[in-house]
């Protein structure tokens, strides 16, 4: 368990709203879209963030986003989100409340989120095309080095695919173990009934 989560759990237990706070634990990737689509708002109060992919995922599912104004988030989300200083709880609450109480603003953020996603996809495709062109030129000038790089890329791809298979296997084993535990639990309950 994350050390910070222990602190968060203590704060939740002290909160007057503790009965309204749901901690889900780990959520499978294929369950995330339903949660994003069912949410009125996605809040990302990060102090440290890489690209901010989870905010983009939320927008892709039609969920409005409010975000920390730190790290890469303002650059990635641009005007498709509202921002707050994550060090100022009152400011964060004000931005969250503003969006939750304004259906028009929610819709505007949803629309801007979809537009931002299209813009990022276009930029990504442009970068991909540019990279492919540069590699093509490099390949023509340095065929042996290009072949070496392609071989390494192929090996990395195989390793990634192997890790994916291992991950699938782990998930499958965990599911089987859960099912077995459920079955054992049912058997124990039935044995207890018979003993009575």
Describe the protein's architecture and organization:
By secondary structure, the chain is mainly α. It has 7 helices and 3 strands. The protein has helices at residues 3-14, 32-38, 53-60, 73-77, 89-100, 103-141, 143-195, and strands at 42-44, 65-68, 81-84. The protein has a 3-stranded parallel beta sheet with strand order 1-2-3, with helices on both faces. Helix 3 links the parallel strand 1 and strand 2. Helix 6 crosses helix 7 (143-195). The chain is extended, with a radius of gyration of 24 Å.
Write the layout of secondary structure elements.
Elements: H1 3-14, H2 32-38, E1 42-44, H3 53-60, E2 65-68, H4 73-77, E3 81-84, H5 89-100, H6 103-141, H7 143-195
Parallel strand pairs: 1-2, 2-3
Helix pairs in contact: 6-7
């Amino acid at each position: 368990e994350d050390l910070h989560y222990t602190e968060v759990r203590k704060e939740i237990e002290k909160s007057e709203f503790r009965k309204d706070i749901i901690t889900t634990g780990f959520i499978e990737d294929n369950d995330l879209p339903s949660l994003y689509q069912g949410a009125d708002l996605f809040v990302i109060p990060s102090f440290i963030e890489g690209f901010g992919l989870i905010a983009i995922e939320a927008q892709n599912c039609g969920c409005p986003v409010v975000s920390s104004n730190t790290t890469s988030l303002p650059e990635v989300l641009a005007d498709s989100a509202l921002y707050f200083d994550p060090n100022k709880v009152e400011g964060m609450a004000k931005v969250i409340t503003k969006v939750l109480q304004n259906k028009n603003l929610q819709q505007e953020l949803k629309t801007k989120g979809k537009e931002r996603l299209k813009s990022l996809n276009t930029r990504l495709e442009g970068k991909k095309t540019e990279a492919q062109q540069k590699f093509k030129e490099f390949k023509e000038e340095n065929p042996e080095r290009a072949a070496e790089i392609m071989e390494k890329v192929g090996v990395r791809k195989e390793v990634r695919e192997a890790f994916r298979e291992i991950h699938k296997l782990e998930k499958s084993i965990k599911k089987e173990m859960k099912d077995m535990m459920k079955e054992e639990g049912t058997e124990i309950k039935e044995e207890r009934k018979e003993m009575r």
